Amino acid sequence: MVGMSSDRLAGYEKDFLLSLYERMVLIREFEERVKFLFLEGAMPGTIHQCQGQEATAVGVCAALNADDWITSPFRGHGHALAKGLTVQELLDELFGARAGCCKGKGGSMHVGNLDKGMVPGIAIVAGAIPLAAGMALAFKMQKRAQVVACFFGDGAVAEGAFHEAINMAALWKLPAIFVCENNLYGASTHISKVMKNTRVSDRATAYGCRGETVDGNDVLAVYEATRHAAADCRGANGPVLLELLTYRRTGHSRRDPCGYQPKDEQESWFSRDPLDRFAAALRQSGAVASTELDQVKARTEAQINESVEKAKRAPPPPVADLLTDIFS
């Protein structure tokens, strides 16, 4: 396994480090349980999962203030849990229950909670990027010290909305952090087949803003880069394009067996698993005992088990709800 130096942990409080680890474990265990619930036919719809990308969601959201916002694409379970949505409200949503974070109307591809600073996911590729620019413009016009972090995949970089939104944000120095989770594949197409220059952060230069490429499987590297980006934005030096290099351990959607990922590529990335690396660094530092890490996993599994049983019994929306929350 490619490790993370335990020296990297120096200067951080133990409780903060454990909170990062616990949030990543929560996302991984949540996604694994949801995967089997779908395979069993217990849940409706489809899923786009993020196993392997836990450090990107957790690192970014841990660096934001409580009143900052995020936008997300259709692969949003990890972003939601990292931003503070509960396991219960997410599972209720995935089961189509009225108690879900979007009242059972959004499902897996549209999770979010406006009260917690997360716009419900937008399934159109790159669709949330102009929205984030608009939100950042509102923050600037209202003289608020808030930022918006916009998550999207490497496939979204090929969309016009990406270029238009970042160009506008750069022109007006908007407080937006554009977070590209570069997992090498847009659906099943490798990034090298659609881009001559595969370093996404280089595109920032064309628009006159700062870009940075970060190890997206190193939660502390992501956290530190996002803190720096947020400070830039609050100081009227935004936007910032962050490229987080990561890898999904699952297919594009639940029907995708991932046959296009070469075995040696998988093995290389799996050896850099964000949970394993961080757990090893925590143990080596001596700050956290292995028993504490085991307790985190046991606590997380119990929480998910309890929430699944409640979600299975949660009532669906009434028919009358078809006519509520309609804006056009």
In words, what does this structure look like?
The chain contains eleven helices and seven strands. 43% of the residues lie in helices and 10% in strands. The protein has a single domain, classed as Rossmann fold (3-Layer(aba) Sandwich), CATH 3.40.50.970. It is globular, with a radius of gyration of 19 Å. It has helices spanning 14-39, 54-62, 77-83, 87-94, 128-141, 160-171, 203-207, 219-234, 263-270, 274-285, 290-313; strands spanning 69-71, 148-153, 176-182, 185-186, 189-190, 210-215, 240-245. The protein is of the alpha/beta class and 328 residues long. α1 (14-39) crosses α2, α1 (14-39) crosses α11 (290-313) and α5 (128-141) runs parallel beside α6 (160-171). The strands form two sheets. It has a five-stranded parallel β-sheet with strand order 1-2-3-7-6, with helices on both faces.
State the distance separating the first and last CA atoms.
52 Å
User: Strand share of the residues?
Assistant: 5-15%
Strands of the biggest beta sheet: in what spatial order? 1-2-3-7-6
Tally of helical runs: 11
CATH secondary-structure class:
Alpha Beta
Q: Classify the secondary structure makeup into a structural class.
A: alpha/beta
Give the low-confidence spans. none
Corresponding CATH superfamily: Thiamin diphosphate (ThDP)-binding fold, Pyr/PP domains
Q: What Rg do the Cα atoms give?
A: 19 Å
Q: What is the fold's blueprint, element by element?
A:
Blueprint: H1 14-39, H2 54-62, E1 69-71, H3 77-83, H4 87-94, H5 128-141, E2 148-153, H6 160-171, E3 176-182, E4 185-186, E5 189-190, H7 203-207, E6 210-215, H8 219-234, E7 240-245, H9 263-270, H10 274-285, H11 290-313
Parallel strand pairs: 1-2, 2-3, 3-7, 6-7
Antiparallel strand pairs: 4-5
Helix pairs in contact: 1-2, 1-3, 1-10, 1-11, 2-3, 2-8, 4-11, 5-6
